[in-house]
Amino acid sequence: MWKPSQRIKYQTEVAHWPTKDAAAGAQLFSPITVGSVKLEQRTWIPAMVPWRSNEAGEVTQDVIDWYARFAQGKPGAIVVEATGIRDIPSGPLLRISDDRYIEGLKKLVDAVKEASGGQTRLLIQLIDFLNIRRRPDPEKYFDRFLVITAEHRQALALQDAPEAKVRQALASLSSKTLESTLSAREWDALQFGARDRVTDMENPAVADLPKTLPPLFAAAAMRAKTAGFDGVELHYAHAYTMSSFLSATNTRTDGYGGGTEARARLPLEVYEAVRETVGVDYTVGCRFLSDEIINQGSGLDDACFFAQAFAAAGMDFLSLSRGGKFDDAKQPRVGAAAYPYTGQSGYECMPAYLSDEQGPWGRNVEPVAKIRTSVREAGFITPIVTAGGIYSFDQAEALLSDEKADIVGFARQALADPDWFEKVRTGQGSDVMLCRYSNYCEGLDQKHKQVTCELWDRTELNSKQTVLATDGKRRLTAPAWTPTP
Ligand SMILES: Cc1cc2nc3c(=O)[nH]c(=O)nc-3n(C[C@H](O)[C@H](O)[C@H](O)COP(=O)(O)O)c2cc1C
Ligand code: SF4
Q: Which DSSP letter does residue 144 get?
């Protein structure tokens, strides 16, 4: 992963935890209404893909165990990981792309209700993503994948030569000559693996996204409602299709790219299709970026514009993330796919303990506060969810008191200790296992390995109750916590 040049080491420490009485009077543990549901407290576990599904994209027992474990901590809400809305093979990514998934998803909803004693609301994040291929072996790329064009022939002065000869000639070029001989996209495909962009208007499937996506999202949201989820979060963040529509790099000329209004058009049309399908009494919000953190990308002003537009359209909550783009991802090794959290934008999405003067904690707080202010100034009371490097009660409570957000997201801190919420609420904060922001978990995610936390995955490995990862070396869920009576 990208690291800031300053490389200052930070250590998570908490000098003060609230007593049970102080926690009872805290804003963090006060209820809030989000659309048609009431959260018992203003705590939220943002979506995290743990790679617990199977090749069919189903809810497995491991998926159920994972979310039930989070639910034992009784946070206000849990957002289930990015879940695919298209009925296509997507590796072990959870899917909600057909009615056959509803039964499994119902079991997940039931498990969370039971484990939280009905205290935790459950939402699910709906994702669409475009095709991405692994970085090719150059030999195979020139042998098979590259489509030979008149431009290649002309550059090599091989206009009438058999195709095999053109392929051989290209394969023998130096890197430097090759870069000027191939088109920018061909060069990129060779270096990183081919990847579709929302601006590929010559590709009919991409050109048609404004027609195909609204019904796909709407059908997925209806399945979520049928399965009993309390709401859906439309994934408009990071490196995926909807975020790419919002991006300032979206130069589509069909009315869905260019200025901020045109870029927000499809996200709004998707929302409208979802709303029409699930009705006014169902919680629907989205997650998008306070800043893309890439050259020529959308920044805070764009985010304020989008937030106001989404609030005006009637979204029930706005959850803000940051960065996480393909545009600045590191080159993957041959045979691996690019991962959108390896560049600076990835760092801003999941800041780690080696950081700069600003440090890894709360980097998204001020931008989100500005977005919230802009939404309030436009006359909307839409709850705003913030996240990014938040691990202590004081941090969370201060940002609520200062009206910088309405709900506080704890992703890696909840992974490190799913009981954070119950421990802090009951005055046992000193028992909290603090996240180190090591990004060990994120490294596992990058390799599509079952995500665990280094703080607990080797604990009580020999116990009969412990379910191990496929590598046999790690436990799959955090160890149980026995509260002090
Ligand atoms: C293992 C892992 C998987 C993640 N998967 C998702 C995801 O599916 N959807 C999403 O919007 N964010 C995802 N994120 C980002 C988190 O939701 C969160 O925004 C980020 O970790 C910063 O918050 P934190 O500092 O509290 O961890 C993931 C993060 C981690 C560590
Ligand atoms: S592995 Fe654990 S301690 Fe490290 S960042 Fe992830 S959740 Fe935090």
A: I
Taken in order of first residue, the domains within the chain and their CATH numbers are 8-133+199-446 (3.20.20.70), 138-192 (no CATH)
Strand 407-409 to 43-45 pairing: parallel
E strands, 248-300, in order: 283-289
Strands (E), 153-219: none
Q: Which amino acid makes up residue 449?
A: K
- The residues that bridge with 77 in the sheet, in sequence order, are 44, 121
From 392, 432, 441, the mutation candidate for ligand 2 (largest count of ligand atoms within 8 A of CB) is 441
Rounded distance, CA 292 to CA 295, Å? 9
Q: Is the CB of 412 under 6 A from ligand 1?
A: yes
User: What CA–CA distance (Å, rounded) separates 453 from 381?
Assistant: 36
* Integer angstrom CA distances of residue 126 from 123, 270, 310, 314, 351: 10, 11, 16, 18, 24
Confidence tier at 318 by pLDDT (50, 70, 90): very high
> For 183-216, how does the pLDDT look when each residue is reduced to its tens digit (9 = 90+)?
999 999 999 999 999 999 999 999 999 999 999 9
The confidence score (pLDDT) of residue 29 equals 98
146 lines ligand 2 (CB under 6 A): no
CB 314 within 8 A of CB 275: yes
CA 129, CA 84: separation in Å to the nearest integer? 8
pTM over 0.70: yes
Handedness of CA 265, 270, 271, 272 (dihedral sign): positive
Proximal ligand: closest to the CA of 444? 1
Rounded to the nearest angstrom, the distance between the alpha carbon of 122 and the centre of ligand 2 is 23
Q: What is the DSSP string of 17-34?
A: ---HHHHHT-STTS-EEE
Phi, psi of 417 (to 5 degrees): -150, 95
Query: ∠381-386-388 over CA atoms, to 5°?
Result: 175
- Which residue's CA is the closest to the ligand 1 atom numbered 15? 48
Note whether 466 and 25 are within 8 A (CB): no
**Substitution site in 70, 129, 350 for ligand 1 pocket (most atoms within 8 Å of beta carbon):** 350
